[in-house]
């Protein structure tokens, strides 16, 4: 369904010296530098697969998806979606794909949701009967009934995202690209959205490429993940495989008596363990990740207790979230030879 071979995208960025002098100089002698956003990426996604396409900020995910949807033309390499070269046949490509791009909307801002759907029905030439059946199904699964008469700009983020998903799947596309479909949503809405995506895949065999920083999304929806780092694929395989390869990973969460502003690991364990970057401001809690092949949990605990006022601790096994966090911060190559991964 999606075939990508040695795909590359370079951006040309105008470079300017600082200050007014630089601005004036750049008017006459413009210098450019090249940003290699996507470097020789290859992947093959079968019809009906649900694949997580993940990577740290700036890794090149959106650039790849823009090439798959035909918005961007690659610098080099091949891309085909359902047998079509997207950037050469944008209109034809658009008829069999659906997309949700994070915070941006494809619904019409000022008109009620139902009227946006009517417009999409005309744009995609959806037969009336199919349209009614599909919409009735989506209204039920996504609980859209109370929202249909409201203009999009009056909807909350979670309400808008449910309407957005229905719009993306309305014409029963063969492929759907979902970029951060659950960002900023509460747990109940996340669950509803994940169930909807799974249901669409089961019923219509929709191929789904999901970009998200929410590992729970990945774990619940996808069987396969492709991880990119600095424009290149560093892992392509099943979630079970990556867990098996990194099965020795452990995380111990330490609750400290008081907060520590600039926490550093004790020197004795610094080469074998890392501190997981924090997403909240709770400085009482520190999570330490390590490989049980390199150091035992008992050593980490005793060393931490020697240097810090530990109140409590919890030990966790390898979770996809932890594995991915470490791959983002350290890269794969430090742990495992690149060849072994593929
Ligand atoms: N239009 C552009 N012009 C120049 N550079 C760009 C452009 N768009 C993206 N880039 C650069 O290309 C690289 C890849 O960006 P991209 O948006 O594809 O990353 P991403 O993986 O989607 O990141 P995020 O998770 O933050 O959305 C980044 O270094 C970014 O700064």
From TrEMBL:
Superkingdom as given in the UniProt entry: Bacteria
Record GO terms (molecular function): ATP binding; ATP hydrolysis activity
Boundaries of every ABC transporter domain copy: 22-255
InterPro entries xref list: AAA+_ATPase, ABC_transporter-like_ATP-bd, ABC_transporter_ATP-binding, P-loop_NTPase
Pfam families per UniProt: ABC_tran (PF00005)
Keywords of the record: ATP-binding, Nucleotide-binding, Transport
Alphabetized Gene3D superfamilies for the sequence: P-loop containing nucleotide triphosphate hydrolases (3.40.50.300)
PROSITE patterns: ABC_TRANSPORTER_2
PANTHER family membership: ABC TRANSPORTER ATP-BINDING PROTEIN (PTHR42711), ABC-TRANSPORT PROTEIN, ATP-BINDING COMPONENT (PTHR42711:SF1)
Protein's name in the database: Sugar ABC transporter ATP-binding protein
């Amino acid at each position: 369904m999606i075939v990508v071979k040695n795909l590359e995208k370079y951006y040309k960025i105008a470079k300017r010296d600082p200050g007014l002098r630089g601005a004036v100089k750049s008017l006459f002698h413009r210098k450019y530098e090249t940003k290699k956003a996507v470097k020789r990426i290859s992947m093959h996604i079968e019809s009906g697969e649900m694949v997580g396409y993940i990577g740290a900020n700036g890794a090149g995910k959106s650039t790849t998806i823009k090439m798959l949807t035909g918005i961007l033309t690659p610098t080099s390499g091949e891309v085909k979606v359902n047998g079509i070269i997207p950037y050469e046949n944008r209109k034809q490509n658009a008829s069999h794909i659906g997309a949700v791009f994070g915070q941006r909307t494809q619904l019409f801002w000022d008109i009620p949701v139902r009227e946006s759907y009517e417009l999409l029905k005309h744009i995609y030439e959806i037969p009336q009967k199919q349209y009614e059946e599909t919409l009735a199904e989506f209204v039920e699964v996504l609980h859209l009934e109370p929202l249909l008469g409201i203009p999009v700009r009056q909807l909350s983020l979670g309400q808008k995202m449910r309407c957005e998903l229905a719009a993306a799947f309305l014409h029963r596309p063969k492929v759907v690209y979902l970029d951060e479909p659950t960002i900023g949503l509460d747990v109940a809405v996340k669950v509803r959205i994940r169930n909807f995506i799974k249901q669409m895949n089961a019923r219509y065999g929709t191929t789904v490429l999901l970009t998200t920083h929410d590992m729970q999304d990945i774990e619940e929806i996808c069987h396969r993940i492709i991880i990119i780092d600095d424009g290149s694929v560093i892992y392509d395989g099943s979630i079970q495989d990556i867990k098996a390869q990194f099965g020795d990973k452990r995380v111990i969460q330490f609750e400290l008596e008081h907060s520590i502003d600039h926490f550093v690991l004790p020197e004795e364990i610094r080469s074998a363990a890392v501190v997981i970057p924090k997403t909240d401001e709770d400085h009482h809690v520190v999570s330490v990740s390590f490989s049980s092949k390199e150091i035992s949990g008992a050593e980490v605990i005793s060393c931490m207790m020697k240097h810090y006022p530990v109140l409590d601790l919890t030990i966790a096994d390898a979770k996809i979230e932890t594995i991915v966090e470490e791959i983002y911060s350290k890269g794969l190559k430090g742990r495992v030879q690149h060849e072994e991964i593929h």
